[in-house]
UniProtKB/TrEMBL annotation:
<dbReference type="GO" id="GO:0045505">
    <property type="term" value="F:dynein intermediate chain binding"/>
</dbReference>
<dbReference type="Pfam" id="PF12774">
    <property type="entry name" value="AAA_6"/>
</dbReference>
<dbReference type="InterPro" id="IPR027417">
    <property type="entry name" value="P-loop_NTPase"/>
</dbReference>
<dbReference type="InterPro" id="IPR043157">
    <property type="entry name" value="Dynein_AAA1S"/>
</dbReference>
<protein>
    <recommendedName>
        <fullName>Dynein heavy chain hydrolytic ATP-binding dynein motor region domain-containing protein</fullName>
    </recommendedName>
</protein>
<dbReference type="InterPro" id="IPR026983">
    <property type="entry name" value="DHC"/>
</dbReference>
<dbReference type="InterPro" id="IPR035699">
    <property type="entry name" value="AAA_6"/>
</dbReference>
<feature type="region of interest" description="Disordered">
    <location>
        <begin position="596"/>
        <end position="651"/>
    </location>
</feature>
<feature type="region of interest" description="Disordered">
    <location>
        <begin position="665"/>
        <end position="700"/>
    </location>
</feature>
<dbReference type="GO" id="GO:0007018">
    <property type="term" value="P:microtubule-based movement"/>
</dbReference>
<dbReference type="InterPro" id="IPR013602">
    <property type="entry name" value="Dynein_heavy_linker"/>
</dbReference>
<feature type="domain" description="Dynein heavy chain hydrolytic ATP-binding dynein motor region">
    <location>
        <begin position="441"/>
        <end position="593"/>
    </location>
</feature>
<dbReference type="GO" id="GO:0030286">
    <property type="term" value="C:dynein complex"/>
</dbReference>
<feature type="domain" description="Dynein heavy chain linker">
    <location>
        <begin position="3"/>
        <end position="156"/>
    </location>
</feature>
<dbReference type="InterPro" id="IPR042228">
    <property type="entry name" value="Dynein_linker_3"/>
</dbReference>
<feature type="compositionally biased region" description="Low complexity">
    <location>
        <begin position="677"/>
        <end position="686"/>
    </location>
</feature>
<dbReference type="GO" id="GO:0051959">
    <property type="term" value="F:dynein light intermediate chain binding"/>
</dbReference>
Length: 757
């Protein structure tokens, strides 16, 4: 610091002399100015090298500091004695923690962390308070061990409690512990049925689970339920549905009374509580196939969400747990929105380990990758690098070296050998002459770091789309990773589970309509690059929905809720020529009064048409109208070789409801002034019913928007006012918005009006 102040003073003195001389030539030639500047630059570079060496030394002592950039780490180290101002950096060091509770101790002389809070409001108390008014390095290390001790004791206390699980999981402070408790109880109950003398005991347990799910379903429909409680109840419904599907598969296989050594049972992720010598010494473990590991005890926060069990997610989960056991990495491949991220994150959180997700892009640097992987390796977390194939070749080569060093060390720890077969008895930290025992450390980019045996490094790549197969991972990286494929993905079971967790009883029927609606939108609307109709959009849409109250829980009301959520979520990203078509699709799919759109009426057809229908009234549509942008039509007409630019609907995807087929068969886009009426009816009945839910913009604010537009010097066209309302409501439900449109269409004016509003 003294050296930097001396250089800063010399630079200020030099600049004051330069300001006194108006001539640039005289300023540069005075007093060997070139030599002075060069000497000052050398001093700055020397100070910067010492500063980087100091930061590397701090990271070697506290490897979690690898999760912070150099600038963030310097700021954090300077905040000694100010724990409240450290919260933004604590969120990066400990994923899942939103805030730490601080109390004064010893008559106000000391400050201490006493609890941790998640994003949705859950609060977990620390077993022992962690003093936080001393050196940052010390309390970060103590906080790391304090969090694990608190989770261990809390889980042990609820596992040894004599209160029934239906009452206990509601009062358990941490959602992940409540899910673990529920899984332990389910495993014990299922295994009791498998070893019972009566094979029908498993069937009776299946009936009990159905009754239990119905009770929780009534609970989530309660309008007086707090949002934090609703989030926990929804997660418990999803978890209960997972165990119900496991029991149903066992019943179909006739597993009742046949013992525990059945692959249909052992291939599932199971949880057990092993009691020690003392009553409070309880060890929680998880098993899958013949693999048994101890629970991770890392706080993942109340963002925890159980995995919806499908055949694809179950197979991927087995591959991930096997890779975690063997110490090998994983390479997850699948089409967009196939649930790759969801499977990895839910599996890691289920076994008590944090999962960090990094989106690959061209600006990732070697140093940043080294720091991130070093921090993950110390934490014992899972790291998923999304779309890894898009990285430059030089970055992929460096990534292969980092993955190889970490995974080789993890394998050696699991097998009890040396990393790479070479002993490293001693090493030196970069920039420090201090020697230390490096036998239990891995060498990453010239620095020895501690590596946890629970570390798992993963990479995901997109396949099944145009251009996705042009690039792949290099062999040096691909051979390190265990392949996990998710090509045969079906969104219907996942959406069914999500809707059921929201309190919809007819979740299977509603999910079928919603998934078909997304398929029709993908085929009937223009092929824009920013359109996305997969699982990612469905999950974002379902964040806004809530099942109707018990006295209004009908299929029609549920469809209206989904239709309003579709309009609110999806209409803001449409291009102008798709608005009318989208309104018609939403109206027929969710607001149709004829009942055919939701499958409540059968088709009048017979023969082949009647056989092709399913339980939701859906059948193939061979003459679905396809909206093609005019510029694509002109380009295809001018050049016949560009016919691939025109969107074509695959025969396997041309499916929509009978009512939608009849409606769209005679419908053509009307002018904007008439687009709000039902085509062909001759009436003025609105195409879309007025929204019955409370909008993010009040009626008073809606009336003020036209005058606000005039005051700002713009013209209050109806379409522009509508866009202002849509952007305001989109930002009320999401943190970001992507505005697209041609040149001079009012994008900047739209942002200015919403900012003023």
């Amino acid at each position: 610091a003294d050296a930097f102040e001396a250089m800063h003073s010399a630079w200020k003195h030099m600049m004051s002399q330069a300001a006194a001389l108006p001539s640039l030539q005289e300023t540069c030639a005075q007093d060997d100015r070139h030599k002075q500047v060069k000497a000052l630059l050398n001093k700055f570079e020397d100070s910067q090298a010492k500063l980087l060496a100091f930061l590397d030394e701090q990271r070697s002592a506290v490897p979690r500091f690898y999760m912070l950039s150099n600038e963030a780490l310097l700021v954090l180290l300077s905040l000694e004695g100010h724990p409240n101002e450290c919260m933004p950096y604590v969120r990066q060091l400990f994923p899942g923690i939103q805030e730490l509770g601080i109390e004064f101790r010893n008559g106000g002389e000391n400050q201490a962390f006493t609890s941790m809070r998640g994003r949705h409001g859950e609060r977990v108390s620390l077993t022992q308070a962690v003093l936080c008014d001393g050196a940052v390095q010390k309390w970060v290390t103590n906080l790391e061990s304090g969090i694990q001790d608190a989770l261990k004791q809390e889980l042990a206390s609820i596992l040894t409690s004599k209160v029934s699980r239906n009452e206990l999981w509601l009062v358990t402070p941490a959602l992940q512990l409540a899910a673990t408790l529920l899984s332990v109880e389910h495993c014990a109950a299922i295994e009791a049925c498998l070893v019972a003398d009566d094979p029908k005991e498993l069937v009776r347990h299946q009936e009990r689970l159905a009754e239990e799910a119905e009770q929780v379903l009534v609970m989530v429909r309660d309008e007086n339920l707090l949002e934090s409680e609703r989030h926990k109840v929804s997660a418990m419904i999803t978890l209960t549905g997972t165990w119900r599907s496991i029991v149903e598969s066992l019943v179909r296989e006739g597993a009742g009374g046949r013992g525990l050594n059945q692959f249909g049972w052992k291939s599932n992720l199971r949880f057990y509580a092993e009691k020690g010598l003392k009553a409070k010494d309880v060890k929680c473990t998880f098993s899958m196939c013949n693999i048994t590991k101890e629970y991770g005890y890392s706080y993942v926060g109340d963002d925890f969400s159980p995995l919806v069990r499908t055949s694809e997610s179950h197979a991927a989960q087995i591959a991930l747990i096997t890779a975690h056991h063997l110490g090998s990495g994983g390479w997850i491949r699948g089409p967009p929105s196939s649930g790759k991220l969801e499977v990895v994150r839910c599996t890691a959180n289920a076994i008590g380990l944090p999962c960090l997700v990094v989106q690959a892009h061209a600006s990732l640097s070697h140093r940043w990758l080294t720091a991130t992987i070093s921090g993950v390796a110390h934490m014992g977390a899972w790291l998923l690098l999304r779309n890894a194939e898009t990285l430059p070749t030089s970055i992929l080569s460096h990534l292969a070296q980092l993955y190889s060093a970490v995974l080789s060390f993890v394998k050696s720890r699991k097998t009890g050998g040396k990393a790479g077969g070479v002993a490293t008895p001693k090493g030196k930290a970069r920039g420090s002459g201090k020697e230390f025992d490096a036998e239990n450390k891995a060498l990453l980019d010239g620095v020895y770091i501690s590596v946890h045996s629970k570390t798992l490094l993963l990479a995901s790549s997109t396949s099944g789309v145009a251009g996705a197969g042009a690039r792949t991972l290099p062999d040096t990286l691909a051979l390190l990773l265990r392949p996990v494929t998710m090509h045969s993905f079906r969104p219907l079971p996942v959406v069914t589970g999500w809707l059921f967790s929201k309190g919809f009883r007819e979740s299977a029927k509603l999910a079928s309509i919603l998934v078909r609606f997304m398929e029709v939108c993908e085929n009937a609307l223009t092929a824009c690059a920013h359109y996305e109709w997969g699982l990612r959009t469905l999950k974002r849409l379902l964040l806004l929905v809530r099942a109707p109250p018990e006295n209004k829980a009908t299929t029609e009301e549920s469809l209206k809720v989904l239709g309003k959520a579709c309009r609110l979520t999806l209409s803001t990203r449409l291009v102008g020529e798709d608005e009318d078509t989208f309104r018609a699709l939403v109206n027929v799919a969710f607001f149709s009064t004829r009942g055919q759109a939701n499958g409540s009426e059968a088709s009048d057809g017979d023969g082949d048409d009647a056989e092709e229908e399913d339980e939701t009234g859906m059948r193939p549509l061979e003459a679905a109208p396809v909206r093609v942008p005019p510029k694509f039509k002109d380009r295809a007409r001018d050049d016949p070789n560009n016919h691939h630019l025109i969107s074509k609907i695959p025969a396997a995807k041309r499916r929509m409801s009978v009512g939608m087929q009849e409606f769209l068969g005679s419908w053509s886009p009307a002018p904007h002034a008439q687009s709000n009426s039902r085509p062909g009816s001759g009436s003025s009945k609105p195409l879309l019913p007025p929204p019955a839910v409370a909008r993010a913009t009040s009626s008073e604010q809606q009336n003020k928007i036209p005058q606000l537009i005039i005051d700002m010097g713009f013209q209050p066209f109806e379409s522009f006012v509508l866009r202002c309302l849509q952007l305001h409501e989109a930002l009320a439900n999401q943190s970001t918005a992507f505005i697209t449109g041609p040149v001079c269409c009012g994008k900047t004016a739209l942002v200015q009006v919403c900012a003023r509003q």
